[in-house]
## 1
Amino acid sequence: MKILVVDDSKAMRMIVKRTLKKAGLEGYDVVEASDGVEALSVVKADKPDLILCDWNMPNMSGLELLRVLRNSDNDIPFGFVTSESTPEMRQIAEHAGASFFISKPFTAATFADRIGSVI
Amino acid sequence: MTGVIDRLQDIKESVLEDFFEDEFSPVENETWISRDAITALIRFSEAWYGAAAATCTPTLARGIAATMFECAPDELSEDELADALGEVINMIGGHVKLMLPRGTRMSVPTIHPTANVAPAVPGGRIVWCNAFDCAGERLAITFFSCGEPE
């Protein structure tokens, strides 16, 4: 099973991977993308079971990526992992089809709770 | 601004220690005197104008980045260092942004090889500044407002 981590920060992708391990989710393969455009290629090639995605990214944002996926009838579980978490953003994310919204800084317990409920 | 200051006061517990699992001890009444510093800066705009900066010694910057990248401090590239520090200020900025007026936008981080980023925040007034000690190295967090004084 695969989890796709999408973030333009390599440091944050590493932190997310580490937190997945701490959350007991180490049985999953983790694939990465640095923006929404690259993520679409990875989704097509690797067919991940879950996407963990940053909100703000160059080329294609996380929200744009989610909308492209949902508009093409791809219902892959999708969660945002982002440093900004206003109520408006959460509402927009939910309306666009996100399964959950995790704010940075996050803990392994939060990952286990949110991700465990969708996969 | 009171809500923002409250939010800044708990940065040590809510951002720094939760995430980095290091001990950050507040340092009272200390002005940044080291010439050797690196600062990550984010700007707020649209509904509210200001900025937040995280300044630290290069040693601490490399230590934080090495933790993130799981490598030795001297193995880091300058891009990786900037990436890691950018994420630190992203988290601090995101933490504070919840208390800023609705519609406030947060910029991507910029990295400056200095402690004095005031010139990069035209019209900015420091409304909060606290320093922390982490294993003998210093981290200072500064919050600027570019609006009317309150």
## 2
Amino acid sequence: MRSQALFKIAFKSLLGKKLRSTLTVGGVMVGIAAIVFLVSLAYGIQNLIIEQATGLEALKIVDIASVNNKVLKLDSNSMGQLKAIPHVSKVEPLVNIPGQLSFAGSSTDIVSFGASAEYVRLAEIALKYGDIFNDNDNGIIVNTTILKLVGVAEEDYESSLGKEATISLVVSQEMLADGEETKVVEETLRIVGVVEDSENPYIFLPVRILENNGVVNYSQAKAQVDAKENVANARQIIESIGFKTNSVADTVAQIDQVFTIFRVILASFGAIALIVAALGMFNTLTVSLLERTREVGLMKALGARRREVFSLFLIESLLISGMGGSLGIALGFGLGQIFNYVINRLAQATGNDMVVIFSTPYVFVIGIFVFALVVGFLTGIYPSQRAGRINPLDALRYE
Amino acid sequence: MAQPHAGKTKHDIIHLKDVKKTYGTGEQATEILHGINLSIYPQEFTIIYGPSGSGKSTLLNTIIGLEEIREGTVTIRGSVISNQDEDTRARFRNRNIGVVYQSPFWVKTLNVLDNVALPLLIHDEEGNAAKRKALEALSHVGMEGFAKKSPMTLSGGQQQKVNIARALVCDPAIIVADEPTGNLDSVSANDIIQLFLWFITNFHKSVIMVTHELSFLRYADRAVSIHDGYVESVLTKDMLTGVVDNLARVPGGA
């Protein structure tokens, strides 16, 4: 029998029992919709968290540090080497030096980061007041912890901009060129930016100032790769030189891992609905077979082979699961979009940012549709085999 | 047993040799057909008759390959089909034999036209060609006007005509009918018989009909009497003349 004829007969048989077919397709639809809805929620939240935790730019950044300062130094020489790596668009160094800062009549212990303005930008340091320094100026960025420690009132934070602060840094031997001894560097610099931060007291100052004081070895560096896809490759090359690398991508991978589990758990809840639907489908097919025993007998008497009767019932099963799957995907996706819309209206009304809570990747849509067909196939295989094995004479005598 | 003299000049289209049919196994085994030897000839109207339970329907189902037999051979148009598997027999039936049952069976969700086209679709025929041929078959039985109706809405006589159109649609050499008039009034029953006779003269079909309606024997070219699983007699047309009226008076006859 041509598959076109099989499809037609299967389809007409479903149409012939409209209520039952509708309910069975509806069952599959609800099951698939539940999975699509819940998994879309998991995808949406995952995307939201990754976006919040890491800007998209951050995914292109690789943090580089020396494993052992004595063996492989992160100096201007190795900087050049790093810049030459394919797809690496920028390499910005960072020097990390402990010291003290005196401002407004009192002083506090600080950590100072000697960096380029570009580095501060790559690190996505968000300034509360002021701007990033110019590489050739004497500007520094301080965090609010420092201002608090030296006794500046919160309302005066902004007015600290433009004022001078004195820092004294202990530059250790390993940062200096060979043969030089550990020394203390004192500088008077102007506050140009304030970072909102309640953690340790730290400042950013132009790395040039430290370089002028003899610093040649950097503590670490940030490399920017031109595209997210090239990060893994660039890291491999950097690590083959001998540096260790770190990337937000690692954190993202961990988040992904957690959410894979989360998705599986949510999908399992939906799967319960689908199992019930599959049982319903099994029931429908079995009842339909009992009702149509004579029809099967007739078809065999007219010359249909086992395989053709088997295919006919399997096609019915696939039609049910295919229709249920498509409608379920539409329903699950639609519900998610309605939720997104409602939540965003609420967010707008309360002055919050727009968010996407439900996200349905198209690969997942294809996957779940195939899954629905597989469920239909597995559910249909037993009734179909039974149909194929029906003895036509018994069937025609069957009342 | 009377031998048909016509058999000496014609080749048989169906030949049964020592066919035994047993239901059940072991102690409970019951032999229904006890070594049937029978020839059926082309372009003849063969009637198989006998009382209920004589094994005539079993014989018919054996001929068309729906019954499996353990002993003997069934040869149709030169092919031994009794040793073939179920699917091969099904295909053979589809191509060579049109089947008409007492109560017509339908695929209820399909209309008259699609039901008649079904054997062609099973025969891998393309949908539109199948419909065209089905309509032609319906016109042979005068039912083309009912093509779009559901078969369930037709009267018994109309259903049986559609059923015959379906048996005819694949243009098989042989048409078998198991009590095709059993549920019909005498007028409708007569219509069916006339259709069979017309198929024989116009389309050169061979028709085998199982019945216990003895009055139909007057139309038969050959009459096979089955009793308790044996072929009791085979009478040809000329032998039948004269006996028909007597047979028809047997209780249960028309």
